[in-house]
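Notes to self, Lipase:
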Amino acid sequence: MSLRAEVTTGIAGLAGPARALIGLAAVGLGVTLVLAPLSTHQIAVVTGIGLALAGVAALLLPTADRFTRFSARILGGIGIALGVLIAVWPSAGAPWLAFVVGAALIGQGLFQGIQSIRNGGDQRVTNIIGALASVIIGVVTFSWPVLTLTFFRLGVGAWFVFFGLQLVMLALTHRTDSVLRAPRPRSRLRRWSRTIGASLALVLAVGLALGTGAILGGVPLPEPGTFYAAPAEVPSEPGQLLRSEPLTEGVPHGAQAWKILYTTTHSDGSPAISSGTLLAPRDRGADALPLLSVAHGTTGVAAKCAPSLSATPFADGAGAALEQMVTRHGFAAVTSDYVGLGTSGTHPYLIGDAEARNVLDAARAVQQFSELSTPTDTVVWGHSQGGQGSLWTGQIAESYAPELTVVGIAAFAPAADLYGLAEVNKNDAPGKTVSAYIAATWNTLYPELELQSQLTPGSAGPVTKIQNLCFNGKDVLAAILRGTQVPNQIFPDSLLAGKFGHLLKEQTPVGPFPAPVLVAQGLSDPLVKPAQQRAWVAGRCAAGEEIDYRTFPGLDHLSLVAADSPLTPQLVEWTLDRWAGTPATPNCAALPK
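result:
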């Protein structure tokens, strides 16, 4: 026997055990895909390993036909290459797996439809119906990549198990033949069953497509009208009231409201225009009304997301407490929309200094409103994004608007540690939605970062879609669902470790604060983590700030500020105390070490 023949015989002898080992590995991977709680990255890794093993198995399959052997080698090489690429680069592999599933469904549907039209037969209509269903479902999968991966893992997992068992049986029996059976004639019942099944699949596919469009498309919201446009003559001084008009929608009983337009500045000092709302008791005398300045929470980053355009303009944050302060205790409340919401320009989302300027200038503009009188003292409130904004408002008030006196600062679940939030929430749906808002706005505000070109694979498209959805009203569902379908975290870790991460850290309010500070935190908050909030509070206490830190077991990010929250009466009492000059009750000394 020649040396070449001996080598070939030796390799052939090893092929059987190798196929058995690969088969057992494939079964294990399949069981893992079906049963284990895997993340999208882990699905990609396991699938990549399985594809690589399938490629190796294709190279080892015994076949005497030259064409089949050549095809097996080509497919085996492709399987190994794709599998290795997906396994070692799961962040790119996860979006591509979802894309491949959708493309495969569309391709299969088109091929089936063309074949049915060309070949005819008694099942032509049935096949065409099934082909249409396949194409439509394939298109729908592009809107639900993570959900597609969930179903994909089940199908691929089952295939890995079946494929692995086949390899093991092949190794044990050494069978290389295939049995060709003559097709059995289809019965009439079987043909009708296929037609009914294909029709039901088409109905389901159309329903999925329509439902997807309705859910992910959001709800049409009013676009800003002429009220929000800049007048021909704009004063250069910030805090100047430009115009106002009555607001009637969503106004609490016993209150009167207006929309306002006023001048402000960007964080770099350049002039800007912002809109906002003003709420006051309907029954009021000539005396000055105590002033409450509200920094609102996340409503989105598109112009149509301004609270003053919403059907419920005063529901944000502690809306029930706000209504009580106005209708029962005679306060006036001014809320800035922030630049870019309602008015033109890019919304400075979670840019603390910019939000604070907008809030302070709204309080300045109210001083010029002829229908009521307010003092230059104010208490500042804010929830979530607005919590960060209220803390920043207190931090810069003395330097930016020295004529105003902040007598109290209340922040509910504030986004105080923005870098920490980006770090711990990067894989959560709400965190991805917030990250998409940051990516969309900071890409314009900080062009040197080139954020759009540095997002993780599969993130750029969802960012574009999410930035046009508001985070208030019925749009919230669409924004969150879009967030759930981003396969990766929006920002790569390398970006968080660089200049972008440094800018996130710069948004942390550190004081000094000119007035007592109340920080409220729900201990079941999945977005602003209690441990992070406590660490921020501990840091400010160590720096000498007077913080009244109140925690609420069982309350999350939204229930903390709900009408029935225990925070509601506490916030009302705390605000009245600040206005009355009652000494504050900081509790830094009571924080556990």
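- The chain has 18 helices and nine strands.
- Confidence is low (pLDDT under 50) at residues 1-14, 175-183.
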